[in-house]
Amino acid sequence: MIDKKNISKESFDIIICGGGPSGSMAAIAAAREGSNVLLIEQYAFLGGTLTAMGVGPMMTFHNNVGEQVVLGYPDELIERLKAKGASPGHIEDVITYCSTITPFDSEALKIELEDMVTEAGGTILYHTILVDVVVEDGKVKSIIAANKNGLVEYRADFFIDSTGDGDLAKMAGLTFKSGRDTDGLMQPLTMNLKVANVDRKKVKEYARKYPERCLFDYGKEEGLRRLETAPRISLKGYIPELKEARKRGEVSVPREFVLLFETGTLGVFILNMSRIQGLDGTDPYELSQAEMIGRKQCVEIFNFLKKYCEGFENCVRMDTSAQVGVRETRRIDGHYTITEEDIISASIPEDTIALGGYPIDIHSPDKVETNSVFFKKGTVYGVPLRSLVPKGISNLLINGRCIDATHEALAAIRVTPQLMAVGQGAGTVAHLCVNQNKSPLDIDIKELRLKLQENGALVDVPKSFFMFSEDFGKDEVLDDQNQFIFSDSNSEEDK
After folding, report:
1. Is the distance from CB of 317 to CB of 192 less than 8 angstroms?
2. The overall pTM is greater than 0.90
3. What counts of helices (H) and strands (E) characterise the chain?
4. Are 431 and 29 in contact (CB under 8 A)?
5. Amino acid 489: pLDDT
6. Backbone angles phi, psi at 472, to 5 degrees
7. What band does 3 get if pLDDT is binned at 50, 70 and 90?
8. b/e map of 416-435 (b: 16 or more CB within 10 Å)?
9. Which of 4, 69, 155, 199 is most deeply packed, by most CB within 10 A?
């Protein structure tokens, strides 16, 4: 146990651990409502997956027919980036996996998130690591963190765990699930690589010349049309080139295509291609191993790009991400588990605090494939407050990708636009709990949802949206021509 006799103490209304996309939005939402908010982050910047893990673009603010389902503070962030020339905004996805993607400049994103938090009155504390959690009478009394002042006890009336891995909740003694039900394996980790000086004209010409070497999820014709009109390139391509390089042993990465996304800057691309399977992102030794494997994979990827991929002959390596990307670790044992059926059937519970439209996207934990479930046209699903509320602690919310959901459902919910919307909801809930001295399950849901709507968020599907027949079940949905299970995989010898 830590000797707390000489530990200094600081107090706030709400403390948020983790300054990723969802944690930042939670801080903005709570501070704008008037709460005294402390946002704690282990790195020297905000943005989490979008900055520390090098993820980009954001996917997606829309459903599969282009209706925007994520608005509010997350969309305000994009508008602010657009105004500074740091994002082209929501643009068509050339791959056609989504209707839209949102490229951005990661350095500008760091500053914009900081500005939004501090303008709202929130306090950001960098270089600070969670060490311990003090729980008394079913409530988190305080957390103990380490920084340049040594060990400091931070007290608050309410806490939000936005660590992505549920670190605060685990230290508080709460229970979790992880991975697939069959074997516990989680989605693989990825070390993203950023390269510059790409000849984007040659990349586009390659896709025009060899569309059969690319993969367009909703059809070649639509993908090639978007290629001509989208201001940034996204592509699943160079499939035979990669397959042959893997056969020769030049590339060991268990990937089936080159997945590339142009950033907010023309000619600068993110390669989401590394794949590190079988390791647990919450085990410090395995996480360390993943970092080392990821860096070596990125060397292979870079050399492969320069040698075999048209348009990348003269590319320059910028950097790998500060931390290996993590898709999935712990999932809290909450008051409602979101299931695959909820996502596919477009369930929108009465306590929905955020909407989503991203498909189920499972990077295989043990094969050379990516398995997706695409939905019936116009599908929108809801994230209920109950899935953020852990069992056993009354003044804590779980925010981000460790909410209560199955392995399959999380594969749809986990993307940043939707989790930013969840973050706005979590911050608003926390403020109401502090202001009314209530627990999350006791607040007035109608009041909460009205406040979210007043602040621009969507929590119900507008009547103007494209609506499919509500009378369908899972089997019918998966057989529908507009909705199917899809596996991006190479031949059996690659699996």
Report:
1. no
2. yes
3. 13, 21
4. yes
5. 53
6. -150, 155
7. low
8. bbbbbbbbbbbbbbbbbbbe
9. 69
